[in-house]
Design brief:
four-stranded parallel β-sheet; about 140 residues; single chain; alpha/beta; 4 helices; Rossmann fold
């Protein structure tokens, strides 16, 4: 499966929880997208938007997408991830390892959907494939 198809599928996976959760009247779901690269044409972002459109989500109408680019400077990623977290998106999407790691360090409460990572366990993004987000107890605390 190519990266474009994966991201279009990821859009579908993201849309299900956004639609399933009862959104307060008038609340538009917000997706944060964190890139390592520079602004400009993006196959990943185009595929993601197309996947959302196919599911009935239109940017600016019933979904908001907030994008941040690090311009190829890894040292900018932590600040950009923190900025996205302050904007309180419903989910953060990252298309590679460096922004995924920065997003993980910036939040433990906002779900992170990542793509293009060969070994997420080895990178330290997830503890295992069976329970990528860890186990949750009744009190809501996460155990790794």
């Amino acid at each position: 499966m190519d990266r474009r198809a994966f991201l279009a599928g990821a859009a579908g996976l993201l849309a299900a929880p956004l639609a399933a959760e009862a959104q307060p009247a008038g609340k538009v779901p917000r997706v944060g997208f964190l890139f390592f690269g520079s602004p400009g044409p993006s196959v990943e972002l185009d595929a993601f938007r197309q996947g959302l459109r196919e599911l009935g989500y239109v940017e600016g109408q019933n979904i908001a997408i907030v994008v941040r680019f690090a311009g190829g400077r890894v040292e900018r990623l932590p600040d950009l991830a923190a900025e996205l977290v302050r904007l309180k998106p419903d989910v953060i999407v990252t298309p590679s390892t460096p922004p995924s790691l920065s997003a993980k360090q910036a939040t433990s409460t906002i779900p992170i959907v990542f793509a293009g990572i060969a070994d997420p366990v080895g990178a330290g993004l997830i503890s295992n494939f069976a329970r990528p987000g860890g186990e949750h107890h009744r009190d809501g605390k996460q155990q790794r």
